[in-house]
């Protein structure tokens, strides 16, 4: 196949978005798109290019005092009868338009058109963000080649609809158990009903008042939600076991350890088991490139509430933020689309910030 | 196979119990035992015998003013490494010893040894009591040949450990739903959590005070138990649906309609769906044969809390009670057994009552 990412296409981030969308790249099937991207980056000449699996890394080596990573994932969720792309007025429709090939287009356009940026730049186009983290290209690079990620700031071009969303909240899931004693329901008083006992746990959830925390001007709104409940043995048995899964979304001023301590306090007296946990990431907007980026964009940052790959950079001590043209509410939707105006705005902003 | 229920065996209800136990007859596999029982009854001469599937009915036609049914099921739960039977001191061990071949032995012994009872007697040895009611032999007879069941009193020889347990409680299962609105748990405040909403339902269960009701000297203790709870969509989704299954065991002074009205009152304001229901049965101990039975046994009756086939007789307007030598707590247990003394006591009591 001839590479559809021709020099002409690369010159216009809107045209480039469509071209990238039209290279189907569902998670675990990113070889073709990674080949096309690697080819383009190698031809650029001013970049040093490396590859790991279907993740492609390219960087400038200009000896600048500071380095910025621009990162985007190449994969999409499964196609939902929404390829190839179509254009209706100012909108490009298609799988991956918002999440996040429009963001990838901004980075790839910069990579080939800006040989002399204000900071040294590292471009990272990675595989398998939409699936289990064992396949996540950013994760694999962090393990195999952590030096590829070293920088003073990372910008993930995930959909934010042109806003700056900094850091991210952590997430922890715990299972809370209640125990009882089995009995036949015809002699219910001989048993202790573990489902009835769960009432007191639900009461604590109802009475819970989540915090709202502001850090570096970014506001994080916490939440504590039951996400599953289960119990019961048979239609005529008083059950001796019930469990509930609870998801805490916590602001990045709490560590995972502190989040767990908080949950132990909320569910004091109950058996509690952690089933899943990921740390948050502080916004880290005090670094010079971040301050300059905020100046270039002219917007106040907001806190990112969902968990994103910025936390993987934070775990390496690298401040990270999300900034992309897509609308996050449209990610994974069958009518996924992106506004052409948002792509042009985003490209102009990045140039304003990065062109020396 | 020669019929192991020989004339000698039939003369002793203890020996007969062992012989019946040793004819394996797990539900849906009752042909052999039904053949043996039918053969014995036909040979008795004074009985008129009929068969439906693996259910055998035999009756006297002496023109007595009153008729009593003696009924027992031939099937057992699956064998649990507890056949053939063994005897240790006063105990016979084995699958079905308590539930309810010792009871069947009492009836079969009477059938062949008491040609001239005080009332006309109908013996009913039926299949498939331990499984879904569509297979239940008593049920099938009630549909196909309701006249076989006509009587002034029915005695089910289910295990009661030699007590008289009269009538039975009804049972009703309802599903109570709570609804909410889905949202991502990172933005939990945009949703309404249906699991949290279930807290108020559980509170009503915790606060519930069940009635204790005495009818004809029999005490019935009601109960309201959650038997299943379920809800949840994914680990990061505020769920919009949760449901709980609740089992009401109700005294026979309530009809099914009244039981439902009661549940509608308890769960007022919630969506409620009946998933299963069976009426209770009044003890009906005022009929003459019942009063004479109580006099012969010399014990106060108790209310039956679990649902049993007596309710099938009650539905036909026939008072019914449970009376058998087995211990109900041992039914379905791997170490199921019956006391030889209880078999002899039961046989003597029935003779005292029924021999003219």
From TrEMBL, chains A, B:
Superkingdom, taxonomy of origin: Bacteria
Biological process terms in GO annotation: diaminopimelate biosynthetic process; L-arginine biosynthetic process; lysine biosynthetic process via diaminopimelate
Annotated catalysed reactions: N-succinyl-(2S,6S)-2,6-diaminopimelate + H2O = (2S,6S)-2,6-diaminopimelate + succinate
Key words, A-Z: Amino-acid biosynthesis, Cobalt, Diaminopimelate biosynthesis, Hydrolase, Lysine biosynthesis, Metal-binding, Zinc
EC identifiers of the protein: 3.5.1.18
Pathway: Amino-acid biosynthesis; L-lysine biosynthesis via DAP pathway; LL-2,6-diaminopimelate from (S)-tetrahydrodipicolinate (succinylase route): step 3/3
Keyword Hydrolase tagged: yes
Organism for this UniProt entry: Actinoplanes aureus
Tagged with keyword Zinc: yes
Assembly behavior: Homodimer.
Protein name, per record: Succinyl-diaminopimelate desuccinylase
InterPro entries: Bact_exopeptidase_dim_dom, Peptidase_M20, Peptidase_M20_dimer, Peptidase_M20A, Succinyl-DAP_deSuclase_DapE
Gene3D superfamilies named in the record: 3.30.70.360, Zn peptidases (3.40.630.10)
Span of domain Peptidase M20 dimerisation: 169-268
Cofactor(s) the record lists: Zn(2+); Co(2+)
Lineage: Bacteria, Bacillati, Actinomycetota, Actinomycetes, Micromonosporales
GO molecular function: acetylornithine deacetylase activity; metal ion binding; succinyl-diaminopimelate desuccinylase activity
């Amino acid at each position: 196949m001839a590479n559809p990412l021709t020099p002409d296409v690369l010159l216009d981030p809107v045209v480039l978005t469509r071209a990238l969308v039209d290279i189907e790249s569902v998670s675990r099937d990113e070889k073709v798109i990674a080949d096309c991207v690697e080819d383009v980056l190698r031809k650029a000449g001013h970049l040093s290019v490396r590859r790991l699996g279907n993740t492609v890394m390219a960087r400038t080596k200009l000896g600048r005092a500071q380095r910025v990573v621009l990162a985007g994932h190449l994969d999409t969720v499964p196609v939902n009868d929404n390829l190839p792309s179509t254009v209706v007025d100012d909108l490009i429709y298609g799988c991956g338009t918002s999440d996040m090939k429009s963001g990838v287009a901004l980075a790839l356009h910069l990579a080939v058109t800006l040989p002399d940026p204000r900071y040294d730049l590292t471009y990272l186009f990675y595989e398998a963000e939409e699936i289990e983290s064992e396949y996540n290209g950013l994760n694999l690079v962090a393990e195999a080649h952590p030096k590829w990620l070293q920088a003073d700031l990372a910008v993930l071009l995930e959909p934010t609809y042109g806003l700056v969303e900094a850091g991210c909240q952590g997430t922890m899931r715990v299972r809370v158990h209640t125990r009882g004693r089995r009995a036949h329901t015809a002699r219910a008083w001989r048993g202790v009903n573990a489902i009835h006992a769960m009432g007191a746990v639900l009461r604590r959830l109802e009475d819970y008042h989540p915090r709202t925390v502001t850090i570096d001007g970014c506001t994080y709104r916490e939440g504590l939600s039951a996400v599953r409940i289960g119990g019961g043995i048979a239609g005529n048995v008083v059950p001796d076991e019930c469990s509930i899964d609870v998801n805490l979304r916590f602001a990045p001023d709490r560590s995972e350890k502190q989040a767990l301590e908080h949950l132990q306090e909320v569910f004091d007296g109950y058996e509690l088991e952690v089933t899943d946990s990921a740390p948050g990431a502080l916004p880290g907007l005090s670094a010079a490139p971040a301050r300059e980026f905020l100046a270039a964009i002219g917007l106040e940052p907001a806190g990112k509430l969902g968990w994103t790959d910025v936390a993987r950079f934070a775990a390496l001590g690298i401040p990270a933020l999300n900034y992309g043209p897509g609308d996050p509410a449209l990610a994974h939707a069958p009518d996924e689309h992106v506004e052409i105006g948002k792509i042009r705005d985003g490209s102009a902003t990045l140039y304003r910030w990065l062109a020396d």
